[in-house]
Structure formats: structure tokens, C-alpha cells
Amino acid sequence: MCEYYFDEDRALAFKINSINSAFVYEEDQNNPKTILVHTNVKVTNFKKEKIRRILSETYPTDMYDFESAEKEFSNKLLAKLIDGAKKISEQEYETIKAKVEASA
User: Fold this and answer.
1) Is residue 74 within 8 Å of residue 83, measured between CB atoms?
2) What stretch of H or E contains 73?
3) Residue 44: its pLDDT value, please?
4) What is the pLDDT of residue 99?
5) What residues contact 22, with CB distance under 8 A and at least 6 apart?
6) Hey, which residues does 13 pair with through a beta bridge?
């Protein structure tokens, strides 16, 4: 499930996929050392530029579990990206996207 945001000041629309996490194991060891948390982000601006990126961060397993790592990722990394943007519906996002593509 995706979340959608729009920043009027920067004229940016964000589509953020669900946050995923997985253990990262070191070679020849059965115990995970870190948790990799990641998501796909698509940013569209009114200059018709589209940017797709995978945002990721690792968290040590001795300090975080999946839930707390994902919460930290969302509160720190994603919050910086969408700072100033308001949450919008998928329909609003598609309307903005259509306006950008129509002016091509």
C-alpha cells in the first residue's frame, strides 16, 4: 500500500511505497547483525521530472527489532524527505500527475 504527499511550496508530489525490513547476516554467521529497512519513493515535480529512489537505512539488532527500526526510519529519514508536505489521497495524486503529464 502506498502513501501520497504533496508539497505546495516545492511543487513536489511524493508516492511512497510501504516500508519493508529484513535481517542482514554477515558471512558464515547465523545471527543477524543488522536490520535493513527500505522503501521505494517516486517524486514528481511540475518541470515534468520524475525521480525514483530506494531509500534505505540499517539498524543494529541489539538496539532495534523490526517494528522499532521501521518506526525510526519513518520518523527520521522519511520525515526529512516529506517535511512540509501534506498527505493526500491516491485520487489527488493521480490528478496532480495527470496535470503534469498533460502540460507536456
Assistant:
1) no
2) helix 66-73
3) 87
4) 79
5) 35, 36
6) 6, 44
The cell numbers describing 15, all together, are: 508516492
Q: Which ranges of the chain have pLDDT less than 50?
A: none
Give the 3-state secondary structure of residue 18. Answer: coil
Query: Cell match 539498524: residue?
Result: 59
Cα separations (Å) of 63 from 4, 16, 71? 30, 26, 13
Cα(24)–Cα(32) distance, integer angstroms: 6
Q: How far is it, in rounded angstroms, from Cα 99 to Cα 93?
A: 10
Length of the chain: 104
User: Both ends of the chain: CA-CA distance in Å?
Assistant: 29
User: Do the bridges between strand 32-45 and strand 86-88 make them parallel or antiparallel, or are there none, so unpaired?
Assistant: unpaired
Report the alpha-carbon distance of residue 53 to residue 102 in Å, rounded.
Answer: 24
Phi, psi of 26 (to 5 degrees): -80, 155
